[in-house]
Specification:
The protein is of the alpha+beta class. The protein contains 7 helices and 5 strands.
């Protein structure tokens, strides 16, 4: 039982750390994918090399991480109010061509990062951007003033 409690404590600690690091640092991986991929290999390695002296301990630790990931996913699906806590909210970082520096600072995102992401999506000048949203997965969605298509409506993005 101690292994399960230790694994749960480490899982929660790593989840808090990944939330503190900021979404722009996470890139394409979700928080839970990052946690699982980084820690699973080490947990299994400890069981195999007997640093923990037990294969069962490794299985319990990995199972606890997997179970908590499924539980968090289910809670996120079932209870909409938990989504901002578990995954965060999209954040407006450019509005009417003007970078929202306060919002960017909260996410530790630089103008250089913003310009790079804009170039990667074919946006040559921020003045052409009606709105840019930092998504919960770390990607930035740019909506230009001349774009004809409308994205899915979302009342969640908040202005910085």
């Amino acid at each position: 039982m101690e292994i399960v409690v230790r694994a749960a404590v480490i899982f929660i600690f790593l989840w808090i750390i990944t939330r503190a690091v900021g979404r722009s640092s996470l890139g394409e991986l979700s928080t839970f994918q990052l946690l699982l991929y980084v820690t699973m290999g080490d947990l299994v390695q400890q069981a195999i090399t007997q640093q923990d002296y037990s294969v069962t301990a490794g299985i319990l630790a990995v199972s606890t991480f997997a179970l908590l990931t499924v539980v968090f996913g289910w809670v996120n699906w079932r209870f909409a109010r938990t989504r901002p806590l578990l995954h965060g909210l999209p954040l407006v970082i450019v509005k009417d061509g003007e970078p929202q520096l306060a919002a960017m600072a909260r996410e530790r995102m630089t103008l250089t990062d913003l310009y790079s992401m804009a170039r990667q999506q074919g946006v040559g000048n921020l003045s052409d951007v009606d709105i840019a949203v930092l998504e919960t997965d770390g990607k930035v969605s740019f909506f230009t003033k001349d774009s004809q298509s409308q994205g899915a409506p979302d009342s969640q993005p908040t202005a910085g």
